[in-house]
Design a protein that fits this description.
The chain has helices at residues 20-29, 48-55, 75-82, 93-100, 107-112, 127-131, 133-144, 170-181, 216-227, 255-266, 308-314, 332-342, 383-401, and strands at 6-11, 33-38, 85-91, 119-123, 148-149, 153-156, 162-166, 191-196, 201-202, 208-209, 231-236, 247-251, 271-274, 281-283, 302-304, 321-328, 347-352, 364-365, 367-371, 374-377, 381-382. The chain is α/β, with parallel strands linked by helices. An eight-stranded mixed sheet has the order 12-11-8-13-16-17-19-20, sandwiched between helices. The protein has a five-stranded parallel sheet with strand order 2-1-3-4-5, sandwiched between helices. A hairpin with a 5-residue loop joins strand 9 (201-202) and strand 10 (208-209). Bound molecules: cytidine-5'-triphosphate. Cytidine-5'-triphosphate binds at residues 255, 274, 276, 278, 280, 305, 307-309, 324-327, 339.
Length: 402
């Protein structure tokens, strides 16, 4: 995933510095070329040799120790300008203060100052140090200048206090790097809305009408769009999934709530993908109290919900791409093609429920992408790969419409 990518880890003197060995190792396994620059204080918590063994690269600590490979090659400049992504973690109040104020007085700060790639900073310190308005001001300043701040976790801190300031899990740090460096940012500047998961229509305070959607396809779409640089809003019914990093998640329950959230987010969106399994009907009335059982059967009157995709298609702005999904158990392609026209969508991803490896709950899918130009039948693939193929097709449509 990170073949050919140069990732620079800046490690400063916080107790969590030892965790960065794991991050370096995980990145190396993803085939990144990993370089580490440490502050002298970081060496109190982890040795440079640990990183050298794991990354097979020299670790830099002192600007004046650097031995240029040749006269034109100065490591603190070439490391900074050559990196595809820099992660500074744990980032102490000290390094945050220096970077926010343009101070470059050691190997790490002189390496970061000339860098032009995405720079991720993970503040990690005592909760009261973190809350100090000067530190907060410095963090806000870094954000203003385009640095990406990874919020620290809350929990028991090494200093004995409970609160915000912990370095997040190593997996999350690696995920944050992947988001910046693993993919071409061909959706940069685009605003994408994805709907996902099931809706829940209440019958009484206890019961709901819902469906089997796990949300996996929609979450894979949100993740793919974020990895490709888009600003992503994910409107989702209840799922057991983790919200992808960098995605604005709006949780909803009913089809009406989904309609409100999606239509409002769609007003400024370039792309809307309706992957949610939205209820077509909702109970005509919601009982205030639990419906008690009686002798004989029970019928529940249902009324139609709004068709969100139809409404998006009717109100489509110029240049906006609207993509829907279609779940069928019979006549898949014919019925899906009809939805493309009826709902004025630009693309329908037809999803057969009868094929093994496709549909709800599984991690794979078999889709046919239907546009006005024809059909593109995709083989069985992971939902994440399918998500990328959908955005490839959407970008093609956007280019064509431009
Ligand atoms: N959809 C929607 N609003 C609804 C129902 C569905 O926006 N109230 C969207 C889905 O998110 C999907 C597309 O419409 O993108 C097709 O959904 P599907 O359930 O396959 O078809 P329906 O439109 O509900 O039509 P039918 O019941 O005839 O299959």
């Amino acid at each position: 995933m990170l073949e050919g990518k140069k990732i620079l880890l800046g490690v400063t003197g916080g107790i969590a510095a030892y965790k960065m060995a794991n991050v370096a190792s995980m990145l190396t396994k993803l085939h990144a070329e990993v370089h580490v620059v440490m502050t002298e204080n970081a060496a109190h918590f982890i040795t440079p040799q640990t990183f050298e063994v794991l990354t097979k690269n020299k670790v830099y600590m002192d600007t004046f120790d650097e031995a240029p490979d040749d006269a034109a090659h100065v490591p603190h400049i070439s490391l900074g300008t050559g990196a595809d992504c820099i992660l500074i973690a744990p980032a102490t109040a000290n390094v945050i203060g220096k970077l926010a104020n343009g101070i470059a007085d050691d190997m790490l700060t002189t390496t970061v100052l000339p860098a032009r790639c995405p720079i991720l900073i993970c503040p990690s310190m005592n909760v009261f140090m973190l809350e100090n308005p000067i530190v907060q001001d410095n963090i806000a300043k870094l954000k203003r200048f385009g640095y990406h701040i990874i919020e620290p976790d809350e929990g028991y801190l090494a200093c004995g206090y409970d609160g915000k300031g912990k370095l997040p899990k190593e997996e999350l740090l690696v995920e944050a790097i992947l988001l910046q460096a693993a993919h071409e940012h061909d959706l940069e500047g685009k605003s994408v809305v994805v709907s996902a998961g099931p809706t829940e229509e209440p019958l009484d305070p206890i019961r709901v009408i819902t469906n089997h959607s796990s949300g996996k396809m929609g979450y894979a779409l949100a993740k793919a769009a974020a990895c490709r640089g888009a600003k992503v809003t994910l409107v989702s019914g209840p799922t057991a999934l983790e919200v992808p990093l960098g995605v604005d998640h709006r949780g909803i329950h009913t089809a009406e709530e989904m309609y409100q959230e999606v239509t409002s987010a769609a007003e400024t969106a370039d792309i809307v993908v309706m992957a949610a399994a939205v209820a077509d009907y909702t109970p005509a009335e919601v009982a205030d109290q639990k419906i008690k059982k009686k002798e004989g059967d029970l019928s529940i009157p249902l009324k139609r919900t709004k068709d969100i995709l139809l409404s998006l298609g009717e109100n489509k702005r110029k240049g906006q791409i609207i993509c829907g999904f279609s779940m069928e158990t019979e006549n898949l392609l014919e019925n899906s093609q009809a939805k493309l026209t009826k709902k004025n969508a630009d693309m329908i991803c037809a999803n057969s429920l009868t094929q093994e490896g496709a549909g709800y709950r599984v991690d794979t899918n078999i889709l046919t992408l239907i546009t006005k130009d024809g059909m593109n039948q995709l083989p069985l693939m992971s939902k994440r790969e399918a998500a990328d193929r959908i955005f490839d097709q959407i970008l093609f449509l956007m280019d064509k419409n431009a």
